[in-house]
Design a protein that fits this description.
Elements lengths: L10 H14 L3 H8 L3 E9 L6 E9 L1 H11 L11 H11 L5 E10 L8 H9 L15 E3 L2 E3 L2 H13 L2 E4 L3 E6 L2 E5 L3 E5 L2 E8 L9 H13 L3 E6 H6 L1 H14 L1
Length: 259
């Protein structure tokens, strides 16, 4: 007698399992994009001839980067070769974590924006008029959004939320012009420029894709340039920023206020 098909994991469990699957396989960029999703919804739409395997469609809900990754997957037209890229990695992870009785072979996306907020028309109109910006520049697939600002990782977003909860002024991922040698000036971008009680310091999130170990020498040189301008620079691991953002911010603010 055929065994009864088991239900797939709950949405939150499925997201967590799929992200862990990607991290275990070293697919860190896809893991970051999937982490940006607020939810995933499964819908069965057919059965294989055996009647024992349910074909399913997964819909992930998140920011623009999630939508773009899924659109790239669904635009793939060379089915003689397996699709590749972030969207394909996400689909593979979701399918791997739903169980043998379910085959997730479709992936769609819905964008979840910030919704209406105070003065949203004015702020979004100003943003729409900016052809060039100086905030979190880089590849679109690495950019996440929170409160209409741009971030490169969930660790950065968690630090931003902790800074906001602490009620301090901060600038995330904003480019600066500063002396880099002789009479030359150059562009440098700190992760967080933080102000409190008349003091200013920089909080850096280490270990994210934007700060790989092989760039350590460049990162230290950048720190030296900022310190020459009288700025405190403190670095924290991405893991710690993700797991304990409030503790990181509390420690940083104590150091900043001590001067």
């Amino acid at each position: 007698m055929a065994s009864e098909a088991q239900d797939p994991p709950a949405n939150e469990d499925l997201l967590a399992n799929a992200v862990a699957f990607l991290i275990d396989g070293g697919d860190y960029e896809a893991a970051q994009v999937l982490l940006a999703c607020e939810a995933v919804h499964l819908r069965g739409y057919a059965e294989y001839d055996t009647g024992r395997v349910i074909r399913m469609e997964a819909t992930v809900i998140g920011p623009r980067a999630v939508y773009d990754a899924v659109e790239q997957l669904n635009a793939w037209d060379d089915w003689n070769n397996p699709p590749h890229g972030i969207g394909a990695d996400m689909l593979r992870a979701l399918n791997a974590c739903t169980g043998r009785e379910h085959d997730v072979d479709r992936l769609t996306a819905a964008v979840r924006g910030p919704g209406a907020f105070p003065d949203w028309r004015k702020e979004l109109d100003e943003a729409a008029r900016q052809v060039v910006h100086n905030q979190a520049t880089g590849e679109a697939t690495r950019i996440l959004h929170w409160n209409t600002m741009r971030y490169r990782s969930q660790s950065e977003i968690r630090i931003a939320k902790a800074l906001e909860a602490a009620g301090v002024m901060f600038f995330p991922n904003c480019r600066a012009r500063l002396p880099i040698g002789g009479d030359k000036l150059g562009n440098r971008e700190p992760d967080f420029l933080v102000f409190a009680d008349g003091r200013c310091g920089i909080l850096e999130v280490d270990g994210d894709p934007w700060h790989p170990p092989e760039r350590a020498a460049q990162e230290h040189e950048r720190d030296r340039l900022f310190r020459r301008q009288g700025l405190m620079v403190e670095r924290y691991s991405a893991d710690r920023c993700f797991e304990s953002p409030d503790a990181v911010v509390a420690e940083f603010m104590t150091l900043l206020r001590k001067g």
